[in-house]
Amino acid sequence: MLCEECQMKPATVHITKIVNNEKTQIHLCEDCAKEKHISLSTGLGGFGFDDTGFSVAKLLSSFFETPSKTPLDISDDLECSGCGLTFQGFSKTGRFGCSQCYNTFKGQMNPMLRRIHGKTVHVGKVPKRTGGQLRIRQEINRLKRELQEAVNAEEYERAAVIRDKIKELEQEENSF
Amino acid sequence: MSLENLMDTSRIKWINSPGPDSDIVISSRVRFARNIRNVPFPHLLSDNEAKKIVNDVYFTLKENPVLSRDIELYNMSELTAEQKTMLSEMHLISMDLANSEKGAVIVNQDESISIMINEEDHLRIQVMLPGLQLEEALKQIDKIDDLLEEKLDFAFDEKIGYLTACPTNVGTGMRASVMMHLPALTMMDKIGQIFSTISQVGLVVRGIYGEGSQAKGNLYQISNQITLGKSEEDIIQNVVSVARQIIMSERKTRQNLSGEARLRLEDKILRSYGILTNAKLVSSQEALSYISDVRLGVDMGIIKDLKPSVLNELFIMTGPAYIQEISKNATTPLERDLYRANFIREKMQK
Question: What pLDDT digit, counting tens, does each position of B224-259 carry?
């Protein structure tokens, strides 16, 4: 098979893209792939940080290229107040400019995250200080389980202490 | 701590300390991506803002009585290109960081902790331990993360978790990976099969030196791809259980070699041993495959009186940049190959 781009060299890089169940395949030779920044990472010192072996950012960005502009496509006009990045700018690099971008491009976020991760909600670690209400809510849930255990074990004094703690946290949560 | 101290491989934990299943798993690594709230991500950062982040991170760690004596900061702008490549050969930094003038790295004494600053994200915290011990690595990185979080406002969203420059890292911001030595599976052409099976459970495999079945040194890295929607512990459990299965099938493949296949393997191992202990010139590429053979020989009991740690060391120390840095006078490729051959002989005789 010849490279789709230059039609000269044999295609050695094959990319399959599935977006909304629509399958697209691209076959490129190594040189054209490189030009398109779809480089397979080789070389020494690879262990460590280049996590996926090819440029995710570049590949990812191809998800957002809008081949035909429809009038419905208003996302292009959005601009992040934090860093000035536009959605088009993001589409080119696959990288956001600052943490506020996540808020700015909220509307586009869920489908994108679902495509990458299959999920859209974080369930892991929550930082103590900047975790905000989530941290408190998690702590309340944890305490509620503990309360139930204490009640089951008929340790009513301990249960009372836990109940007070929960109340305190609930007040804190409401003050946010 | 100078760069020469960093190069002293005798203090590197993942090379020298024994770890669980270290006949097959060379090292385990957990990495957290973190960013400071309301500050542009590194690629949009001004030099002054970048410097401020480096200082904030460094001094936050310096305030900790235990860590303060243990850590050292290296600015990318103060290192030569060779020195930076060497740090990447040692798995302490990425080439992305090496290429960033705003970048810096903080490394501790046994080089189990490395914190890259202003790489793709403001912070890339890494803990690397010998053998298969991702759970322990998570425990350690968690502490460092907590310590930094006391002073730094991390960008975090209640719904999607830790915010990162690239949405592929959002959520936990965690990448857990194991470096595995899989010569038998590679030899029997079973690696491809494993590659495709693993991708179905959300993990990625790749050669550390080169891709696919042509991976030099038979070293592979297995890591999680998904960072959102699963807890850190669950992600790690997933990687660990897959790693365990691969360990078992590598061991089984080694044991099941018999007859001609076994004879040919022993021959190959001993030839490689012969070359490493006798050759006058060794290039970095051939060094990798011979070291891999000899390491297999040691693990299978075919070669005795050689510690596996020496071979871990040689995997790093025969890299082009490392040799260039340590040899000082070797300027041509020929001189470096000569130096490398001498160096390997010396190490293996000890």
Answer: 999 999 999 999 999 999 999 999 999 999 999 888
For chains A and B, CB pairs below 8 A equal: 189
Mean pLDDT of all residues belonging to chain B:
91
The DSSP output letter for A11 is: P
- Domain map (residue ranges) of chain A: 13-54, 57-117, 132-174
Distance from B286 to chain A by nearest Cα, in Å?
13
Does residue A124 sit at the B interface (CB-CB below 8 Å)? yes
Cα of B156 to nearest chain A Cα, Å: 7
Q: Which pLDDT tens digit goes with each residue over B255-295?
A: 998 888 899 999 999 999 999 999 999 998 899 989 999 99
> Tokens representing B300?
């299978």
Q: How far is CA B280 from CA B117, B275, B290, B306, B350, in A?
A: 41, 9, 14, 21, 18
A40 in contact with chain B, both atoms CB, cutoff 8 A:
yes
CA distance B164 to A95: 9
- The interaxial angle of helices B81-89 and B320-327, nearest 10 deg, is 130
In tens, the pLDDT along B315-334 reads 888 888 899 888 887 888 99
Q: Which residues of B touch A95 (CB under 8 A)?
A: 41, 43, 120, 165-166
The C-alpha of A28 sits at a distance from chain B's nearest C-alpha, in angstroms, of 17
Only one residue has tokens 């060497």, namely B86
What's the pLDDT band for A52 if we cut at 50, 70, 90?
A: very low
For residue B129, what are the contacts with CB-CB under 8 A and spacing of at least 6?
A: B13, B14, B19, B27, B28, B29, B112, B136, B137, B140
Alpha-carbon distance of B47 to B53, in angstroms, equals: 10
Q: Please tell me which residue of chain B has the smallest CA distance to A112.
A: B167
**Which residues sit opposite B169 in a β-bridge?**
none
Residues 6+ apart with CB under 8 A from B42: B50, B100, B102, B103, B118, B119, B120, B121, B122, B165
d(CA B225, CA B228): 9
pTM over 0.90: no
Token pair 């054209």: residue = A32
State both tokens at B173: 């911001």
User: Which residues 137-176 on chain A approach chain B with CB closer than 8 angstroms?
Assistant: none
Q: 């959300």: which residue's tokens?
A: B202
